[in-house]
Amino acid sequence: MASLSSSEWRSICEKFRRAQNLSEIESRKDPENDPFRSKYNARELLKEIYSDLKNFDAGENDNDDNDQPQEEQCSDPVEPEGEGSGTGHAGDSPAGLRAARLGVIEYYLGVNHVETEELSAGEEHLMNCIKLLDKCTVSQENVSVFIQARNQLGILWAGRDEIDKAQGFLETAESMYVRYMKEVGQPPMDLTDFFMVEEEALSPQERTKQFEMAYTHTLYYLAQVYKNLEQYERAGRYCHSTLQRQLQFNQFVPLEWAINAATLSQYYITKSCYMEGRHCLAAASVIAGLAGEVPSEAAAQENEAESEKREQLGQKRAEISRCWIKYCLNLLQDAKKLLEDNIGELDTDRQAELKRSRQQEEDEKERGRKSAVLFSSSDTFDSICSLEEKVSCAFPLDFDEARAVFLTGQAHVNQSKEYFQMDGHVTDHIEILQDHSALFKALSFFEEDLERRCKMHKRRVDMLEPLCRDLNAQYYLLICRQLQFELAETYYEMMDLKLAIADKQDELDAHSIKKFNHLCAASMKYYQMFLDSIRSPEGKFPEKLEDEVLRPALVAKFRIARLHSRLISASPTVQLENLSNSLSCYDFLVQYCQEHPEARQAVETELELSEEMVSLLPLKINRLKAKLVSAN
Amino acid sequence: MSKNKNCETVKVVVRCRPLSRKEEATGYESIVNMDVKLGQVTLRNPKTPHGELLKTFTFDSVYDAGSKQSDLYDETVRPLIDSVLLGFNGTIFAYGQTGTGKTYTMQGQWMDPEKRGVIPNSFEHIFTHISRSQNQQYLVRASYLEIYQEEIRDLLCKDHARKLELKENPDSGVYIKDLSSFVTKNVKEIEHVMNVGNQTRSVGFTNMNEHSSRSHAIFVITVECSEMGPDRQNHIRVGKLNLVDLAGSERQSKTGVRGERLKEAAKINLSLSALGNVISALVDGKSTHVPYRDSKLTRLLQDSLGGNAKTVMVATLGPSSCSYEETLTTLRYANRAKNIRNKPRVNEDPKDALLREFQEEIARLRAQLDKRGMLTRKRRSGRRARKGAGEEEGLIEGEGEEEEEEDEGEEDEEDSVEKDVEDYVKEQQEKLELEKAAIRDDRSLVAEDKQRMLEEKERMMMDLRKEQEATDMLTAKFKVRVTALLIYYTHQ
Questions:
Q1: Which positions does UniProt annotate for ATP binding (chain B) (predicted)?
Q2: How many CB pairs under 8 A join A and B?
Q3: Contacts of B347 in chain A (CB under 8 A)
Q4: Is the separation of the CB atoms in B340 and B304 below 8 Å?
């Protein structure tokens, strides 16, 4: 800087300021037919600055040589990565500063070319920037440029579908940040700092913010790189870090952040990482709370902004609730999978074993995991923790534990239904009710009392049946089918339970029989409704079932067959009728699989049983017929 | 082609415009080659030598630079419009980079019959069909909306800055709350509706091109048809036609036509605000909730993309070597669209059919009016129209006489029934005035008679005024409805 007169320097700073202004602000107003006008103007200014700097450098060359020996004595705090020379100027020496200054201009020129769709030229400038800096050690002066130039090159190569190259640049930027923070840690100079007159210099806080933001972007870009490389676990980790850093440096929009965190929880859920999932959800709920109170209906009616806010807040909070529901549901279902025996009942040995092992492992293991994933923002930390304590993240192993999870889920069902009402949000509303039903179903597994278990299924029927009735299948065919099938299955389960209860009582009274037959009939009705939904508009059942309904349709036929044969009747004539109905359904399945062999694998077990029934049932029917004849 | 009769794939056709003069002058060459017979498009990468790295795509049809508007319409669009008239839902998308002829394909040049696009041709088609039909009642409604930056606006509403909400109803599926729709009785009227919308779309934006290339416009025509079934019951079929002018495909990656977005293999999103996209891409949706809403366009057209509809997609291309990348993207997208399978069904007796509502209302009004003795006049004029229709071959003209009376009343404010009444009364008054004048001028009548007739006319005018007070809104509603029904009587 020695040979730069202050007026010359001021003029450079002024040019830089203008270039920034053109590039960032003016460019937004450029007309469609000349979209890069301001960017091009900015480019010219940058070029001028570049040659100005070069000229001064030429005059300073002598000094440069003098600098050299001093620098080499400097132990370099951070080794530049492989692609550079490794040794060179100290970043904070005059030569290092000169290089950084030129590097900054090369950086801006590079970005300018990239933004004006001249990728090769942009790449060249960015590489020039890196070459200049590689001659220097990493320092407070140049670390920002180092990282940002690599961010840009990462984006550039990703845009060219060369993910490996992008990954290289971004990972270098990442490791550079880590080392710098470990070994230096002072707020580094920002890129704009180089061309600011002293009185406008950024505060250390502002510098830190800019620097950390650049690194947050590095992580965010890496998340995308890993996603594109299908390294989903890594991508998830980097998304998580990005969220953490947004919170830490207070660079986030509450609702947006909360939705992202809630979505990330869903990723953890699919990986069965319930502790991480819960942490994300608790953080999402707390941060969403920062977005303010939901305006009252009255306020919303008076003012459009308030009305929009009400809508936004209501919707986003309901969305977060829905993520909580899935958390509870998956936790219950996963626990069920762990605990069930081969016929789907609670395996008590397994339960005892899991209870024993749980205490030992848990404590140490999870503490270690936990510190790695915390969202640490001092003012929200406590509220996040207290929210977490409200629901367990360990698999529930008995009814009481399961019930606690269920109740949390149910509370969120009620909360999300407030926004996602049937009127206006049909699909969402029904999805929530389906989840509610699934929560009951999962809970019923833990319930030992069969009567009470039956009541839980009754609750499911009560919430689903009206939907099935009111929904227009023309627009909601898929949902209607789901509901029909679930209702049929639920009645089937209730029928099974009633039978089990009756078995315990030894004797079937008339009331129980009536009840039992009613459940059978209801189940058949819904299976039949499902099958009818497959018919063509003319009412014809398709000769060939489509892939997505193949298994459900054949299973429905199979179930109907079974239900027919289970109906209880004292009259042999009715019995006969039921059996032949049953036979014809089994027969349908067997016939269908003969005509369409590709269907066999979809219903292997059902087909095997059906084939057996088709050979056995006629015997039974004949015997019954014989009995009828002889009775007459 | 499809495995199942109820299933059919989206019909995808590709159209390529000629090399523009500017492109020719700049020395760009054509890199698109089309085989109309095989329905194939071959794209050459201009960066590689000839004959190398050709990319070939096959579609349902391809239309080269020499193709006429009528080729595309007759082959590809006509069958779809016929289906709509039978009660199917139909959608036509135009998709492509800005400047590849989307608007030319959809709109064309209205004044030149040769160069008319899909939209004017389908208007003509619909109303010609209706005029030739027998024993059917039709009701045609039109709506026009725009989606810009995920906000829906009504292009036919005065307050078009108002954002509309996308809602769902258990009975009628996805709908736009408060979207206006206008009953149109002929080509002229539906064109008028479209023009009004187009004007709304273009005003208020300093940069029209920018705006329209970034917004999706959807013109919706609902055709309801009522016909006596073999069961002696009236059955209503409702076909809905969506004419969709998508935003330029260069913006498509941002707006996303489907849930299955244009997956630009490895592009990095720069803005942190897109973090959600990354995260949601990691989540397997089966047992989880992903709280990002589908785009409005996707939700609105979900039936057209894998649902109850027949869909045609017209992908438009530019042939120039300078747009190789975009052209390839368009072709890839179009290629993917071929795999979308729809399950179209005739929409029979839907609960929300406006036609039914009209019919019921008319029956109710008729009953009320009968009591007031209003209908004698009404019936008389109805008979007159019918008779006229019988005499002239063109049935639409036969009705036209009566319709035109109402046109003025409806033109600017179709829904304003009150105004319609006023207009009607005014018209009747004018008519009577004219008749009065004619009587006065008729020298063949004796003065006495003249006086008597004039008095009678005067009395009729008084009656008319009273009539209005007495029947109030009822009449007006009735009139609007009846003419809107587009009833075409066959020869008796």
A1: 96-103
A2: 149
A3: 474
A4: no
- Mean pLDDT score of chain A, rounded to an integer? 88
Distance from CA of A78 to the nearest CA of B (A): 28
Is ipTM over 0.90? no
Chain B segment 232-261 residues within 8 A of A by beta carbon are none
Task: Please report residues of B whose CB lies closer than 8 A to that of A264.
Answer: 279, 282
First to last CA, chain A: 120
* Preferred mutation among B282, B303, B332 to probe A, highest tally of A CBs within 10 A: B282
Model confidence at B252, pLDDT cuts 50, 70, 90, reads very low
pLDDT tens-digit readout, B330-346: 898 888 888 878 787 77
pLDDT, position A71:
38
pLDDT for residue A557: 95
The pTM of the full predicted model, rounded to 2 decimals, is 0.79
- Cα B153 from Cα B155, distance rounded (Å): 6
> DSSP letters of B296-354?
HHHHHTTTTTTSSSEEEEEEEE--BGGGHHHHHHHHHHHHHHTT-EE-----BS-TT-H
Q: Return the biggest CA–CA distance within chain A.
A: 126
**Mean pLDDT calculated for residue range A375-404:** 89
What pLDDT does residue B485 have? Answer: 47
Task: Name the phi and psi angles at B173, rounded to 5.
Answer: 75, -150
Check CB contact under 8 Å for B3 and A546.
Answer: yes
pLDDT at B338: 83
Chain B nearest CA to A341, separation (Å): 22
Question: How many CA atoms, within 13 angstroms, populate the side-chain half-sphere of residue A623?
Answer: 6
Domain ranges of chain B: 2-342, 354-485
Q: Pick the more confident residue, B261 or B440.
A: B440
Angle at A395 between CA A392 and CA A399, to 5 degrees: 90
Look at residue A2 in the predicted model and tell me its pLDDT.
46
Fold (CATH) for B2-342: Kinesin (3.40.850)
Which tokens belong to A501?
């209860």
Search chain B and give the residue with CA nearest A152: B270
Question: Which DSSP string do the residues of A464-481 spell out, in sequence order?
Answer: HHHHHHHS-TTT-HHHHH
Query: By C-alpha distance, which of A215, A327, A239, A435 is closest to B281?
Result: A239
* Contact assessment for residue A416 and residue A321, using Cβ atoms and an 8 Å cutoff: yes
DSSP A280-291: HHHHHHHHHHTT
A442, A327 Cβ separation under 8 angstroms: no
Rg of chain A over CA atoms, in angstroms?
Answer: 35
Q: Between A332 and B418, name the one with better pLDDT.
A: A332
- Position A467 scores a pLDDT of 95
Q: Say if strands B90-96 and B310-317 run parallel, antiparallel, or are unpaired.
A: parallel
Find all residues with CB under 8 Å of A85, minimum gap 6, and list them: A134, A135
Residue with the larger pLDDT of the pair B455 and A579: A579
Residues sharing a CB contact under 8 Å with residue A365, sequence separation 6 or more, in sequence order: none
Copy the structure tokens of residue B78. Answer: 């006509």
Q: Where are the alpha helices (DSSP H) in A119-200?
A: 119-134, 143-159, 163-183
Q: Annotate A324-392 with three-state secondary structure.
A: HHHHHHHHHHHHHHHHECCCCCECHHHHHHHHHHHHHHHHHHHHHHHHHHCCCCHHHHHHHHHHHCCCC
- Burial profile B378-392: b = 16 or more Cβ within 10 angstroms, e = fewer: beeeeeebbebbeee
B170 shares contact with chain A (CB less than 8 Å): yes
Higher pLDDT, B359 or A120: A120
User: What angle, rounded to 10 degrees, do the helices at A232-248 and A254-270 form?
Assistant: 150
Both tokens of residue B123? 């208007």
Write out the two tokens for B20: 């523009």
